Here is the input.
Amino acid sequence: MKKHIVALTSLAVTSCAFAWDGSGPSDTDLQSVDENGVITQGAYAGDSGLLLTGSQGSGIFAAKTGTAKSVWLKLGALTSSGNDGLFAGANGADVGTTNLEISGAATNINGNVFGGGLNGNVNGDTHVSMTGGLLKDRLFGGGESGATVTGDTHVSVSGGSFSAGALYGGGYAARSGSTVSGNTNIAISGAAQFGSVLDLSMYGMGTFVTTANIYGGGLADELAPNGVSSVGGSTSVAVNGGTIYGDVYGGGQDGQNGGGKSTVGQNTNVTVNGNTTIGYMSGDTLYGGNVFGGGQSWSSSLSSTENGVQKTGGGTQVLGSSNVTVDGGSILGSVYGGGVGSNIYAAGQTGGASEVKGGARVVVNGGTVQGNIYGGGLSGDFLEYDTATTPGTPIVVQAGAGGAAEVKGSVDILVSGGTIKGDIYSGGSGKNATVSGKATVSFVGEGANLAFSGTVYANGENGGVVLGEKSVRFGDGQTAFTGTFEGTIADGFDTLEVSAQSAVVFAQAFNVDTLVIDYSQAASPLARGAASAQASGATVELAEGTTFSTLEILSDFALSKGDTVSLGDVFGGSLSIVMYNLGLSDDSLKIVDNAGNAYALEVSGDGTVTVSDVTPVPEPAACALILGALALAAGRRRK
Here is the structure.
């Protein structure tokens, strides 16, 4: 059985306009710092800048006071052994825009690195560019503990590697809150690598994988149980290259042990494209490999009490909507529109929830997804540690019974191409994964561009639910679907709709309450007399065994008595399947115009439908007279 490890460290990267392009100070203009952290040379243009090389400690700040208008921190051929952090901003003071470059194959940094300051503000934007070097801990676009970035953060990683740790577009709420007032932007490209793999199988010791995640938001640590790491605007994570041995999140991460909360004030946006690989497979175990539109809650563990009071998870929130687009690349795990709820380790414990207040949208245009597509999120598990046979190894007591993963709005999944090896779920995964609104799964474009033979589900997996209406569409009203659909539509959808100009051949049978066919035309009523209106209406070939309760045909014009439509023109060789289903109920067929009116109809045995009443009937119960061959089928009932 394949095992999947969700990475508990994370890395976030978004589109970034900043690059160290020579417009900043030269190396000789920057302040030089000796191994004791003492500045030995002047400043750049009256502002502040540092060039760090050689062996340094940590707790270094590019700006000593709050007088700097812009700050430059360049890390080249630097070895840093401390854990107190390197800051492009100041300690307890305000600065202007900050600029940080990390480069050089010899650069090796142990501690956290920040585009902002510590307990001080950046009154502008932060810019971080990494083209080389090795980071062993976390990189933040923002600052730490009481630090605010009043503008946007920009992080670009096109080279170098993270041996562990994570990348965050936001800041770090370690002992108090951290804020980015604007947007966060992360861009990953080139040969960037997150996480590390040590293969010792030749020595009989197996393979050791260290994950590193990417987060569009910030981190709220367990040391700040009331602290919030907030992004006031939206997050953007654009992965256009590189290798990521971990997961990618549009939102942020809360802390372990009932830590603070990580929030995004507007929307999250994650895009995967290019020659990128997300995840690492070692034997039957997948490390990371998932893409989430929301954030990751980690806040619950065995030591979750303080002063005798059990702490509850802080959780993550996206106050707007989440958006994930896959245009290329290879995703070894699954894609989720929502986020991840935390695991719990004791009955009655409350895990941290991952919440998207608005809707969630997942678009797959290309690339390869080895796992599944979920419109919702992934709820945490109820785990216990085995202290007898395998000490320290968690055992799943109840999957999905941990922290909730919620999408409060509606879910929209749009698929136009690529390869999906698994299934498609309208909802999320786990007992506590909920979509409160409706869910729509749409397929558009050429069927030949899509490699998918799995199943499309109306709800979630492992108990995940969609509370609203559930529908699947072929064509979305703007782009038609043409070709053969090889997948299976599972029971549970309220409607299946085929849009105008779509031509769909269903390879598998399905069962749906309402089958909707858009027979609209651009310039004339549905039909006049015996004339066909098939110039732009949908065509459908159904598989044997397909069943529906109601067939609804859409017209973009009001109809007149005598107008006709040929069901044979719409359904071709599968007309007999349609006629059989229509014979099961007197109210199984209706035509609806663009004003929502239905009409009294007569249906002949050859599939010709005639409008028999010139007065629109506003109620959905249109009377259908089944004649000829339908009369023989009237006594038959669906099995």
Q: What stands out?
A: The chain is about 5% helix and 40% strand. The chain has a mean pLDDT of 82.
